[in-house]
């Protein structure tokens, strides 16, 4: 397990978001990125992974229609600090894993599924 402050982990998430091309971040719509210590039981329910590093909760851009935005809460991308720190063996590995997780969850916002992300090497 890596010992990393909340601030340093938050910075790793911010840096990962900065890696996403501006052309894509400008197209992200009604989505927030959060950092939480651990996933909730409800978030783990839908996951095949007991060490869930991140989750996208919302309606992908590819599935939205003209009625979607009226009163919709923002989609949520949540990155989980505890599972990430337990998985990694160094601060550098945490930064790398956070970047992979952020890109993976942002891709879900754009409608890319796990199978395609796996094919692309982002799983």
Automatic annotation (TrEMBL):
It comes from the Bacteria. Keywords: Hydrolase, Protease. This is Putative Zn-dependent protease with MMP-like domain. One of its GO terms (molecular function) is peptidase activity. Signal peptide: none annotated. GO terms for biological process: proteolysis. Coiled coil: none annotated. Pfam families: Zincin_1 (PF06262). The keyword Transmembrane helix does not apply.
